[in-house]
UniProtKB/TrEMBL annotation:
UniProt keywords, alphabetically: DNA-binding, Transcription, Transcription regulation
Lineage, top ranks: Bacteria, Bacillati, Actinomycetota, Actinomycetes, Streptosporangiales
Protein name according to UniProt: TetR/AcrR family transcriptional regulator
InterPro entries, sorted: Homeodomain-like_sf, HTH-type_TetR-like_transc_reg, HTH_TetR, KstR2_TetR_C, Tet_transcr_reg_TetR-rel_C_sf
DNA-binding region: 29-48
Pfam families: TetR_C_24, TetR_N
Length: 196
């Protein structure tokens, strides 16, 4: 794909994300998308495909960006608590920049085709595994109690919900919010019995 095609595709994704935030997936028509991105229906389909394909690409691109922002922090020799704090900060920085997209991806994912839902769920599980490994390593090191998949989903649910309310111009930075969340999390995990 040429440079202009990439720029056009990115512009389409950004514009359609805003439309989906404002009007929802079903409330946004293809004609409205064409008008917003200044392309005819044929040109839109050339660059993106279908409206459902746009929703899929929004979801997958956000997961990939979150993955890419997180991985460098787990490939260090830092102790698990430092890794946890760093991946939490990275995720909330990402949400501060792409909160609208995350609202769309979380709220509208049910409208994806079965094939696209499988791919998104697979990418989410891969991202969850990054968090699980960090949390498991901390438990193994005795820094907190044992964790399982439910714990990881609960933790990520707490962090991902910030996309709905966190603002980049808010009174606390994404890093400060992440640190408060990690403090709450660690207080709970440190008191968790080993037999759960």
């Amino acid at each position: 794909m040429g440079k202009n095609n990439g720029a056009t595709r990115e512009k389409i994704l950004d514009t359609v994300t805003e439309l989906f935030v404002d009007k929802g997936y079903h409330g946004t028509g293809v004609q409205e998308i064409c008008k917003a991105v200044n392309l005819g229906r044929g040109a839109l389909y050339y660059h993106i495909g279908s409206k459902e394909q746009i929703l899929f690409e929004i979801s997958m691109s956000l997961l990939q960006m979150a993955h890419d922002a997180t991985v460098p922090h787990v490939q260090t020799d830092d102790p698990p608590e430092v890794k946890l704090r760093n991946i939490a900060r990275a995720l909330l920085r990402h949400h501060a920049t792409h909160g609208g997209g995350w609202q769309v991806a979380i709220r509208e994912a049910r409208f994806l085709s079965e094939e696209h839902q499988r791919k998104v769920v697979g990418a989410r599980r891969e991202f969850e595994q990054i968090w699980y490994r960090v949390l498991r390593d901390g438990a193994t090191a005795g820094q907190w109690g044992p964790v399982d998949g439910i714990d990881v989903r609960a933790v990520l649910g707490m962090f991902n919900y910030t996309a709905r309310w966190m603002r980049s111009d808010g009174p606390l930075s994404p890093e400060q919010i992440a640190d408060r969340f990690v403090d709450l999390l660690l207080d709970g995990l440190k008191g968790k019995p080993a037999d759960q």
